[in-house]
Amino acid sequence: MDSGSIVYMHTDVLHQTEIVDILTKPETSCTSNVPPYKPKANEVYLFQTGADDWKCDQYLWINNGTKSVTIGNDVLKKHFYKIRLPGTTDKTNGRKRPVGSLQFKKTAYSLKSNKSLILVHYEGDETVYVPVGHGNSKKSDPPEYTRTAPSVLRKIEQDIRESISNGSVSGEHQGVLNARNVKQVENLVRKVNEEERLSKDDIYNLLLLAYHMDGFIHEVTVFPDLSSIIALPEMISIVNHLLDVNTEDDVPFVFFYDTTFKCGDFFVSPIVFRNIIFEDRPIMPVAFLIHSRKKEKTHARFASTSSKESKTKAYLDPIAWINGLNSDHKQTIENNEWLCSEIINVCCRIISRQFPNISGFQPTGLSPVFDEATKSWSEKFGSFSQKGCPTVQIHHTGKSHWVTSLQSVNDQCIYVLDSFSKTFTLTPSLDIQLAAIYGHGKKHISMKLPEVQRQPNGYDCGVYSIANLLEFCFNGGTSNFKNKTAFEPTGMREHLIKCLELGYFSKFPQSLNSCADSVKMHTRKIECSCVCGKPDILENMFGCEGKRGRVTCSKWVHQSCSNVLGDWLCDEHRSTV
């Protein structure tokens, strides 16, 4: 076998006397110190190793038990394994177990007197094995998992330990000329990663690149659809020049446009052209549109921006509509597009005047943004203020999505109504907003996320947020989640326009024939460990380095609240230093 693996022998049956004879009188020339690569049935290997490297034969196995046999003054230990196959099986206790087969198996033998010498025998049919990915892989078609030898992992660990620790340091200098403890190393690694990271905010990263790569990123649109137009100025110059000088009627200057591929959650649509100045007329890209949804308006905007005539094109100012909104806002509602913050805020102002006994309705622009300079979330545009119940608020989650939060007078619970999410999680931006309104100095803020009526598409979150807010207001600031609402999706936008033009909101239309489903409730917590009362997610946290005996202090604080650059101690442990 390759890589130092040597087949000791071939046999379909290995008797106990042969096993003992091989382990007591091994043929050293046939001993291996490297695991084989996918060995075949009837092969026998003898390993001389101080680690479990022999197990890493690039198959996945399931432990099928052990057995010990006393032979004279020694003990022969047998380890049985069966091959692992794709899939899982349910056990009576509800746990899922991997599927195994005895059609291909291996047995490992060792003597108690010499545990470093391992004899391994493979039996059955190796062709039954089907490659599988790592059990924690989230990919639908993961690559085949290959286990790393334990000796390699130990060497990596040892090399890292030696690189950060000096064994010759005397006892009184331990923690001074050496790392003090694991937590100190973890804090330093976290700090370096934070400093080297461009930003935690993907959208901010894109905007930062747009400024630094002048002329490469031509346009970034954040809301309602995230899209970006990217093009090299040199390629645009070449295209403009060819458009001016092209006189070859037999070789037309052709552009091609299509949504060619997908990168993660985004689509990439390139404009390519046939470069007629080269003999073989190659196809070259000129510009790219990166967008989250295949919408006609986004493609039209890309075509307009990419057009050479866009510099001279005239645009008309939108016509005023109602309550500070204009014809563009009305068209947004009519064309089934995402509602912008201007529409949401106007709706909230009108509804707040109808229900003066309910607090909230704060401007959505108070949402935090990520500050690259401090590597933390910033509230430079202001922040939400604390409100007493009953209160209701529409939030922008920071992920092109609207949700509604509320606190009712009947149960004092805080609810977040999300008409789109299937995971019912809270974004960092939403954590900060909710803590500002409902925190009141609490260390742990419990949130309930009921499975409210789901929107039938990906763009009606704003309409459903307004509809859910209205239901709460018309119920007198009390929550009622015994049954789901049954809004009529087809008439909701028409109703929204009507209410805006009347300057008065009535309930959104609901179906009388629909059977209302019961509401399932999810619970989430927002942690506010710092003395400032703001969520842990706001910025980098420092843990207290103090200890009570062998137990490390559990207090944490935001970096800006600690007023230190290095290790931090809480008031209790600072007084004992």
TrEMBL record:
All copies of domain Ubiquitin-like protease family profile, residue ranges: 322-472
An individual GO BP term: proteolysis
Gene Ontology molecular function, alphabetical: cysteine-type peptidase activity
Record flagged with keyword Protease: yes
InterPro entries associated with the record: Papain-like_cys_pep_sf, Peptidase_C48_C, Znf_FYVE_PHD
Keywords: Hydrolase, Protease
Superkingdom of the organism of origin: Eukaryota
Record carries keyword DNA-binding: no
Family: Belongs to the peptidase C48 family.
Name listed for the protein in its UniProt record: Ubiquitin-like protease family profile domain-containing protein
